[in-house]
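Reagents: none. Just compute today. Glutathione S-transferase.
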Amino acid sequence: MVRLHKHRRIFCVRFLSTLAVFMPSPYETLESHWLKRGIEYEYREEDLANKSPLLLEMNPVHKKIPVLIHNGKPVSESLVILEYIDEVWKDKSPLLPSDPYQRAQARFWADFVDKKIYNGGRRVWFGKGEKQGGKKELMDGLKLLEGELGEKAYFGGDKFGFLDVAFIPFYSCFDSCESCGKLEIEEHFPKLIAWAKRCMHKDSVSKTMAMADPAKIHEYILMIRKKYGIE
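Predicted 3D structure written out:
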């Protein structure tokens, strides 16, 4: 069962009462994508303005999402959760390659996306006096990622993998980045756009990304900018 509330940003995914994930919507749908691969689950929303006892109990250190609760045991942070899921459900077409070096590279670039791309986007949207720095950080990061993609269908080659899952949620934010930062992402990075559209043809991606409507993302970002007087 999926329960979504218009004014809440956080939701929880519960699997047969043994597994739950707290994550923000629509910005980080990493675990949601992978958990759709044949595993039964239920969405529930968590309001971070009024954190539930369960969230505080399961992540007492940071008191934030995402948190995966599997058989009563919590796992925190998006990429860590994604790797955990990949290891536990090894029979579900693993996202990480078997070669140790290729696994290390996938982890490196996924961490790059998490720290540089999302951070650059946040600075473009919400940075007061640092928008130019955010624009450069974002565009430089996208340039590096396009170079890493090269002529491949996906970042790992012919197979949709770990880095693809880590990066594809940000595709829903391209429009807002272009609008708020007066950027031309599609014009400057045609290979990334082609890659994103290729990913969107996968059912597991398109169904997950349907929750991350670019128009709603932009509406939310504009609301926050207005609230804090960001022009």
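The longest strand covers residues 10-15.
Action item: order primers for follow-up constructs.
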